[in-house]
Design a protein that fits this description.
Layout lengths: L5 E7 L2 E8 L9 E4 L13 H4 L5 E4 L16 H14 L6 E5 L1 H12 L6 E5 L14 H7 L10 H8 L10 H8 L2 E3 L5 E3 L3 H13 L2 H4 L7 E7 L4 H20 L3 E7 L5 H4 L1 H13 L3
Parallel strand pairs: 3-4, 3-5, 5-6, 6-9, 9-10
Antiparallel strand pairs: 1-2, 2-4, 7-8
């Protein structure tokens, strides 16, 4: 599917933010704001945005430190990032949107919904926003810091990165769009090697913010309808433990949110927007269509 996104910029809180816009201003239904995960970028939605844009006005934001947005050395705690989202929505005149967040973007969206209860129409948590690392038995900050530190890829050329990525989980669904989403995470240095746009120091600030956040405490504060779009698959070892913890986390938040539904994406990896864009788009569109 061709990418009809309009690439735009907005200056918010002294920073220049990049976002991608889909759909017509005259589209029916609520506007939709899409948030990517840590060390990702707005192009994670490259195959979802056009589909949603057929019915809705859609905005995919590069959050601070990511993609083509400015990259300050601080401000990666969740309240500050939520403040960016507030400023973005106000600056563009977006009224009571549906906010969909993937991975860490789900955490940002959840805190927004818990803090600004009447400001959005619906919340979509796409394989994120519900895990509570600090509550895992035996987990310490030191261990979480090790597990979630980004890999060092600066010795690779773009060609080497792409060839290696095709051997990852996304290799089975590789396309020009998947490659564009991946390469949106990197700049190219003068020597021809890649440099992550999300600097390691900033990445670890986000990891610390994830550690500090308590989704189980924020969930009862959410008043809008919530859709969980969750990846599920058979796994072994540590991966199987992670899947089981995910099920438990979703079940806990279901108990604490007044109006929610869960859609499980079977045989699906974490990057649902890239592996199952058609199914995810339809799921979000149907959810948005049912909101008042």
């Amino acid at each position: 599917m061709p990418d009809p996104a309009l690439d735009k910029f907005a200056t918010l809180r002294g920073l220049r933010f990049h976002y991608r816009q889909y759909g017509s201003q005259h589209a029916d239904g609520p506007p939709i704001v899409l948030l990517h995960g840590v060390a990702s970028n707005a192009k994670i939605w490259i195959m979802v945005g056009p589909r949603l844009g057929e019915r809705y006005r859609v905005f995919a934001l590069d959050q601070r430190g990511h993609g083509e947005t400015d990259k300050p050395d601080s401000g990666y705690d969740t309240p500050t990032v939520v403040g960016d989202l507030v400023a973005f929505i106000e600056a563009l005149g977006i009224e009571r949107p549906v906010i969909a967040g993937h991975s860490w973007g789900g955490n940002v969206a959840l805190e927004y919904a818990a803090t600004y209860q009447d400001a959005l129409r619906g919340l979509v948590l796409v394989d994120g926003g519900f895990m509570e690392m600090s509550s895992r038995p035996g987990m310490t900050w030191e261990e979480a810091e090790k597990q979630l530190a980004p890999p060092v890829l600066t010795h690779l050329t773009p060609e080497q990165l792409v060839e290696g990525a095709k051997k990852w989980e996304l290799g089975t669904v590789w396309s020009e769009e998947v490659e564009a989403a991946l390469m949106g995470n990197f700049d190219i240095a003068e020597d021809g090697t890649i440099r992550p746009r999300m600097r390691r120091e900033n990445h670890m600030q986000v990891v610390r913010a994830l550690w500090d956040q308590k989704p189980s405490e924020q969930a009862p504060l959410v008043r809008c309808p919530v859709l969980f779009a969750v990846a599920d698959r058979k796994a072994e070892g540590r991966a199987a433990e992670w899947v089981e913890m995910k099920r438990e986390a979703v079940a806990l938040l279901q108990e604490r949110i007044q109006d929610c539904q869960v859609v499980w994406f079977q045989d699906t990896i974490h990057d649902i927007p890239l592996q199952r864009p058609a199914e995810l788009s339809q799921t979000i569109a149907n959810f948005a269509a049912g909101l008042v």
